[in-house]
Design brief:
By secondary structure, the chain is mostly helical. It has two domains: about 5-45; about 90-240, no CATH class. The chain contains ten helices and two strands, in the order ααβαααααααβα. Strands 1-2 form a two-stranded antiparallel sheet. Helix 1 packs antiparallel against helix 2. It starts with 6 loop residues before the first helix and ends in a 19-residue tail after the last helix. The model is unreliable at about 260-270 (pLDDT under 50).
């Protein structure tokens, strides 16, 4: 059985004290940092490079308890040597989702600039709309300012767009095992619906100017384009075997010779 450990509790207590100190006193945060470091180090030592286990004796009961006999049900007999199947057997790697997020971000940016060119005769309008009220928060930009190029706003919008695409791509890659054979449906339908619905409710607190002037139909279309392009990038990658049944040391990329069974035509795996 896995060996019992109190280090996760110590780590959780340290994090709680760290954030509690932001509202009370600096010394509380310092204590939280110390406990968090010790808790994390102790927890990692419990699982890396090998998980700690303890042996428990198996106690057999002398006499089985008296229970009511249930009606017999014929069950399918399976050989004991057949291992349990992990489904799905192959999935797309998370790195494919990150690459798809970057490619989808390019498609979404092009579609946003097309929107600005069609409706406002300026490709800088959607870029300035994203960054204008955030980069210069005390003053809301005028319509003339939104139509022209501003280097600071452009760099701010570019950095924010790349960051968001990386985060959404990472989330997309983590969700790929949910629909391992339909990444385009996940990225082009499920993802845009969730993301658009989330932003519809929180955008007014994050960027009031964008919430006031955004065209939600065009925004939803750009999200769908993002997901479809991301899904197309994902399907071009080769699938990898699932690793849920591998030991933690192997999944962490550590050298662990002898921890896996060797094949007849191969040497020890490291």
């Amino acid at each position: 059985m896995p060996a019992p450990t109190a280090w996760p509790f110590v780590l959780a207590l340290g994090l709680a004290l760290l954030f509690a100190g932001l509202l009370t006193n600096l010394s509380v945060s310092v204590l939280g940092i110390v406990l968090g470091i010790f808790g994390a180090a102790g927890w990692f030592r419990q699982v890396l490079p090998h998980e700690h286990h303890e042996e428990l004796p198996v106690v057999r009961e002398l006499a089985p308890p008296a229970v009511a006999v249930a009606p017999a049900v014929e069950q399918l007999q399976i050989a004991k040597e057949v291992p349990r199947a992990w489904l799905p057997l192959k999935i797309y790697p998370i790195s494919a989702g990150v690459k798809g997020g970057l490619a989808g971000g390019v498609a979404m940016a092009l579609l946003a600039m097309l929107y600005g060119l069609i409706f406002f005769r300026s490709i800088w309008y959607p870029i300035n709309l994203i960054a204008g009220s955030l980069y210069d928060a005390p003053s809301i930009p005028s319509m003339e300012a939104l139509m022209s190029f501003h280097l600071g706003w452009f760099l701010f919008a570019l950095a924010m767009h790349i960051t968001m695409c990386l985060l959404v791509g990472l989330l997309f890659g983590a969700m790929l095992p949910m629909l391992p054979t339909r990444p385009i449906i996940l990225g082009g339908i499920v993802g845009p619906l969730l993301w658009t619905g989330l932003l519809y409710h929180i955008l007014g607190f994050v960027n009031p100017l964008l919430d006031e002037k955004i065209n939600w139909w065009w925004f939803a279309a750009s999200q769908i384009a993002f997901g479809i392009v991301a899904g197309l990038v994902v399907v071009r990658h080769n699938k990898v075997w699932t690793t849920e049944n591998l030991p933690l040391a192997v999944r962490a990329g550590l050298e662990a010779p002898g921890i896996m069974h060797t094949r007849d035509h191969e040497g020890p795996q490291q």
